[in-house]
Amino acid sequence: MSRFDLHSHSTFSDGLLAPAALVARAAARGVDVLALTDHDDVGGLAEARASAAAAGIKLVCGSEVSVSWEKLTIHVVGLAIDPANARLTEGLAAIRAGRSTRARRIGESLAAAGIPGAYEGAMKYVTSERLVSRTHFARYLVEAGVVREVKDVFKRYLNPGKPGHVEHAWATLPQAIEWIHAAGGQAVLAHPGRYKVSKTGMRRLLTEFRAAGGDALEVLSASHTPEQFTEFATYARLFDLRGSTGSDYHGPGESWLDLGGLPPLPSGVVPVWKDW
Ligand code: AMP
Ligand code: MN
Ligand code: MN
Ligand code: MN
Question: Which residues contact 81 (CB under 8 A, 6 or more apart)?
């Protein structure tokens, strides 16, 4: 049976490894099929694709699209997309465009909370001139000794109600799904267990996702507990969605789960790769 890891990041967004190094690591970890899914961009896919051939693994072209839904930011992973599709690349460019202004405002908000120089500090960690993210701020806040670890930053900063939070309008849910479908891909609701919603809210989200043409649910994710693997396998069956799996790997020392580190998809869930 092939080992799938369908969610990962490179230096083309907020990952620590260049696409070639990421692919090499996936191959060394026994991954047979890897999707590179950088946030709101497809820039790393050419390098990833070229190195996958040499490493003897299959590379699935992907992107993780930022979406504003109700009061939340959610993520929709597009898998098996054509990275050259103009509808997709123009859509992604449009939602990337606001990131620089947002970053300046994040810096101002942190300065107002007594943390100066965060914008300049975050910029040192940016590895693609096309994309600055909260992760880059988180890395600087760790460097500055404000917080011990990247994952702890988000408990005190950069999230709603906390210093460094800035409202931002990403794509709508129907837009994200439409761009992914235009590029021939499948739309996967990423790490659903991370969204702060009630049971009713989750049902509303899944209903809207399904109605907008969404294809699959990320049942297995490093963000999920084993109980949530079961919970979202049930949701996938209930809402007639396929199931996906992804470590959401960002890099050594930062992600607790390595590439390919998740168990097999629970039985009864139709894999998103069924027709690949
Ligand atoms: P952005 O797209 O700029 O809003 O940044 C979102 C990124 O921040 C995510 O893709 C994660 O890499 C990171 N992030 C958000 N919340 C957490 C968390 N609780 N722990 C670790 N990383 C997080
Ligand atoms: Mn990220
Ligand atoms: Mn995400
Ligand atoms: Mn991700």
Answer: 42, 61, 62, 63, 88, 180, 183, 184, 185
pLDDT in tens, 231-270: 999 999 999 999 999 999 999 999 999 999 999 999 999 9
Q: Can you tell me whether residue 188 is helix, strand or coil? A: strand
Q: What is the pTM of this model?
A: 0.98
66-117 confidence digits (pLDDT tens) = 999 999 999 999 999 999 999 999 999 999 999 999 999 999 999 999 999 9
Torsion of CA 26, 246, 36, 156, to 10 degrees: -110
> For the chain, how big is the Rg over CA atoms in Å?
18
Show Cβ contacts of residue 84 under 8 Å, excluding neighbours closer than 6 positions.
none
Residue of the nearest CA to atom 20 in ligand 1? Answer: 151
9 within ligand 1 shell (Cβ under 6 A): no
Give the span between the Cα atoms of 120 and 125, in whole angstroms. Answer: 9
CA-159 nearest atom, ligand 1: 16
Place of tokens 């939070």: 165
3-class secondary-structure state, position 193: helix
